[in-house]
Write a structure and sequence with these properties.
866 residues, DNA-binding, damaged DNA binding, DNA polymerase, domain 1, alpha/beta, Rossmann fold, BRCT_dom, binds 2'-deoxycytidine-5'-triphosphate, magnesium, Alpha-Beta Plaits, 33% helix, DNA repair protein REV1, seven-stranded parallel beta sheet, binds magnesium ion, six-stranded parallel beta sheet
Amino acid sequence: MSGRGRRRGRGGPGDNGWGEFGGYMEAKKSKLAAQFEQEISSDEADEAASGDRAEHIRPIFAGVCIHVDGYTEPPAHELKRLMQKYGGRYAHYYSRAEVSHTVASQLATSKLKALQPDRIVVTPRWITDSLKAGKRLNEAPYRLRVGQEAPNPPPPSCSPSKGASAAMGRPEYIGQFYANSRLHHISAWAGKARQLVADMRAAGAARFPGADRLRAMAEAERSGTAAACREQPQHQRVVMHIDMDCFFVSVALLTRPELRGKPVAVSHASTSSRQASGDAGGSGDRLRARRGADPDWEMRQYGGAVASEKASCGSLHQSWSEVASCSYAARACGVRNGMLLGRARELCPELVAVPYEFEAYEAASSQLYRLLGEFTHSLQAVSCDELFVDCGELLRETGASPAQLASLVRKEVQERTGGCTASCGLGPNLLVARLATKQAKPDGQRVLLDPAGIAELLRDLPVRELPGVGRALEARLTSLGFGTCGLLRGAQVSALGRELGPRVAQTLLDAANGRDDRPVLAERERKSISAEINYGVRFQTMADCEAFLDGLCRELQARMRAAKVRGRAMHFKAMMRRPDAPQETAKFGGHGVCNTVNKSVALPLDTDDARLLLQECMIIVRQLRLAPQDMRGLGIHMTRLVPATTGSGGSGSSGGGGRSMDISRFAKKVNPFAASGSAASSLSGATSSSMSGATSGFMSGATSGSMSVATSGSMSGATSGSMSGATSGSMPGATSGSMSGATSGSMSGVTSGSMSGATSGSMSGATSGSMSGATSGSMSGATSGSMSFSSASGTSSSNTFGGPSGATSGASGASGAKLLGRKASSNCYSNDRNKVTGKANFFANAAGPSLIEDEEGDERADSPAV
DNA sequence: ATCCTCCCCTAC
DNA sequence: TAAGGTAGGGGAGGAT
Ligand SMILES: Nc1ccn([C@H]2C[C@H](O)[C@@H](COP(=O)(O)OP(=O)(O)OP(=O)(O)O)O2)c(=O)n1
Ligand SMILES: [Mg+2]
Ligand SMILES: [Mg+2]
Ligand SMILES: [Mg+2]
């Protein structure tokens, strides 16, 4: 019937829908899973036979695979039935790869301990309560832990409220946060979409069934309408853009048809909002301000513009939860994606809030991409709900018109997703296609290929509608008198370039004229990878902070390994409570009003090692004297990526011949890594006089030794030793030692030592020592020592919130901590861009910053300069 | 000129 | 209560 059965049949139950294209997933499936598929299929057959409509059964356990351990109530076979009925899987035998949840009433301590700490062990009530609640509940209150009897969690109606800070200390917080973060999910799904496109292209296709259907459609309609066969110009580019209509809401409506046409919003606050919206007086809905929080003040910091236009917006914000997506009926009231739910309710009192269904969005997204992959592989993933299709060739080959393609694709998207609509725009380039989609929404299509039509659309189009023009650029353009594309067309590139920079000016002018020559780019190399959490961060102690950073580093390590990349530069970011901001934030768990602190470190070697990253982070935290109690958010970014070709093992296996040469300034000078093209992570013998590319090198007793690119190198007793590019190097007892580019270097007892470019260097007992470029250096007992800091790393901080910065001045530059000996400035995380002075600058941004709500976008704003 | 680092801005 | 992530383009200003 509807696409639903088909959908499940394709992806396979429990499959999140993104399984690698081609044979990989198939091959990987265990017999148990295969058996499960059979069982599900027969279940489906049963349902179909009995006329049981599957629509009202929500797959709330999608992605879950349970293994039942020991006796339970309800018994295992009943749990198995429930899992299968609600989208989950059941494994007869425990397997780490297959099983996501172990279900047990009690478990021997020894057995619990044997399981990895990240394994989820829950009581059967997690399943039964989730079914009662109609959604998958958080496992936390149902978890079985060492030394704990079967817990007795509260009924699902009264949610187990743990304060954010209570949840924070626990190691599972990071996973829990990500599991509930919509922004994390949409980023991750965009990545999966890109990967799927790459996989499809790699696998190739014998034929394109979608193209066949399109051809059939074109022929059928051609025979009906005599000479309607219009040839596409032979070499004209046609780009189609597809975007799901209010994506999250559309998915929500699949199981809530009664809400169609109504103002609906997806948000986290939805569960409790039901009782709140039933409260006609609204007073019960009022969020009780927690002790010390100052919503009005905070709202003023965020929303200069909004606050001035709406006198009391802070206190009226009853819910600070964000609206991820809202229906078009809600948009008619002025509600927008990214808006706070409280404000949305002001604009639209009848607004119905519904909860997230992440698994379902992912499944729908996967269907969208797989469907388009049946037409062509010239796809550019934009996001989980949006992509470009290079379709000139497809149209020529099938003889179909652009409108026919759009109609067919939209119809099939709706079928495959079980009823979600998409809109399509077609144009001669990415820009016009995208603008056309916007025009067509919702549930429509627009073909915009003729120059006259394009010109007409652009004439009065506000510049803000252009992709790439957000709040800040709009403000600048408007103040220059270029509020619309039509006006912008009259601008001179040179003049505009002086205001906005040459590239922006040119792109803008092109856009205003409907020109855009970017190709549909199906694959591109990743340039950075990161993990960041700015929610729920509350530390009591440095140990809390370190544990959290440890978790983030591990997360990042996992992401790097999954993406098969390693990084050669690390960027640390901390959001610090602004000194004038109250401890308690208006938004529960939010970061509140903050200054951000950034520090980057050029690593001497590429790495994907969490331990190393953590070490760097902690050095930074201590060096900058960041108080854990004031931290509201932390992030780690890696750049200067290199492919992790040799894969495997130790941090710092040399990245093959392709390593780029620009390491740190120091390392470049002293150690031309690029010259050592050896990809081997081999370990040369102790007597070898030169060792390069070693993952872990050890050299002792060498008369003249040199070691480069070692991840962990140690050289002892060398008469003349040199080590460069070591991640962690130690060189004791060398007569004359030199070490450069070490992430963490130590050199002791050397007669004449020099160390440069070390992130963390220590040198003790040197007769004559010199250390330069060390991020954190210590030298003790040197007879003659010199230590200087330079700009191998930079630090800066800026304010989280601020109005659009006009001409942001800012001589950030080479802000290395500079000192002889030790830096001991107090740090107040201000916007001081000139750290060299070490001067405190408390309220660098005392002038009212602003953060205004965004139409389509988010409501974050960024820092102005002082 | 061109590169590099440190940001800001934008989009979903 | 609530889950404010993530990646890329590009400008400013300094180094080369
Ligand atoms: N600030 C935002 C913007 C978007 N999203 C999520 C929810 C959206 O449903 C999805 C897709 O974003 P779109 O910009 O495509 O917006 P919608 O699909 O919701 O609406 P439209 O019909 O305008 O495309 O991404 C979000 O969580 N927060
Ligand atoms: Mg959309
Ligand atoms: Mg979209
Ligand atoms: Mg825009």
